[in-house]
Amino acid sequence: MSYALTTYVIDLEVARSAIGSRDEKLRRMIGGRFKRQLAADDEYFSHEIERGASTRYEALRAVIDGGPYDERYAFQYAYAYQLVCEFHGRPCFNNDFSPFRDDWLQTVDAGLAELGIKAVAVTEFSYGSLPPGLPRPEDLPDYGEWSAEECREALTQWTATTPEQRAVLDAEVLRAIESCSRWWRDAVAAGRGVAGFMS
Fold first, then answer.
1. Phi and psi (nearest 5°) for 144?
2. pLDDT for 136-151, tens place per residue?
3. Where is the DUF7691 domain (predicted)?
4. Nearest-angstrom CA–CA distance, 129 and 110
5. What is the pTM of this model?
6. What is the Cα–Cα distance from 116 to 160, expressed in whole angstroms?
7. Residue among 186, 105, 93 nearest 148 (CA)
């Protein structure tokens, strides 16, 4: 089975503040901007919707209203929160993480550790928790965050590495870490963090 990691440079507090905000204008703006995506998502998950899952827009409404949630279909609320993050954030380049198989995130983490980059781990996107107020899916998508401070520290650790250290790494692992370094650089420049969804 293959997975995809989608990350966003984002003000994490702004995204979290949407949960339970009852901001109808925000809900309408997200619904309008992602209208086609919502329809495609509903078609993809049509079997679950037929069994009682909310549509993606209904899930978005629940996230912004703070419920009610049907925890049997918690994945819909996680994907709805991803729409909130996409609305408020800026997607990162992720070709090195989409698609990927099995232990790729652990492999990249090992490369980070070898370089002495300990501020963050990409596996945080595969076992982190959604923000408070949202039910956690039993399966995908998974969610995680790097704070603005963690991104700043990771970038500092990355810039302290030498070409010789980097040359020892597997080329694919190094490319993935270089992608992460762009995420850190963009986050630091914006004074923001990174939110990631693994699906």
1. -160, 170
2. 998 899 999 999 999 9
3. 1-199
4. 22
5. 0.95
6. 9
7. 186
